[in-house]
Specification:
Radius of gyration: 23 Å
Number of helices: 0
CATH topology of one domain: Immunoglobulin-like
Largest sheet: 5 strands, antiparallel
Length: 150
């Protein structure tokens, strides 16, 4: 559609009753008095939402140079396959992540972080992602790099 000065108008179409987890493709054509245009390139639409927040981040073990953390899988993948976990580490509590680890094996719900310094505090936050994007990060948890007293 065009306005009275010949400028194209933006058109939106709402499609309802789509199935979560399904994949749809959409194309667009334009029509005027002469005829219809060729179809646009297909737009792929993944119906779903972002994965739910990661919960129960916990320290499984710690040494004088490493921490081993584990988390529960998200309660919902948003209707789409998970693509990765992102682990944000703030080593030394600087106020921002100093190291980010991407885990593409979505069956792996743990991370062993080594090369740390004894006594350092490490803040850990974790998120899950699917094709639609990154879900909310877990609550921040703080762990000490140390072993239990002897």
């Amino acid at each position: 559609m065009f306005d009275t000065t010949g400028n194209a108008l933006v058109q939106e179409t709402k499609v309802s009753d789509l199935k979560v987890g399904a994949l749809y493709k959409a194309t667009v054509t334009a029509t005027n008095e002469i005829g219809e245009s060729l179809s646009s390139s297909p737009l792929t639409i993944h119906v779903g939402i972002l994965p739910s927040k990661i919960k129960n981040v916990r320290l499984e073990s710690s040494t004088t140079t490493s921490i081993f953390v584990r988390w529960d899988f998200p309660e919902s993948n948003g209707g789409l396959a998970l693509s990765q976990y992102t682990v944000y580490l703030d080593i030394g509590q600087t106020g921002a992540p100093t190291k980010t680890v991407i885990i593409y094996d979505t069956l792996q719900n743990w991370l062993d972080v080594d090369g740390l310094t004894t006594g350092v505090k490490v803040d850990v936050e974790i998120s899950a992602s699917n094709i639609n994007g990154e879900g909310e990060t877990s609550n921040s948890r703080t762990y000490y790099v140390a072993t239990a007293p002897a």
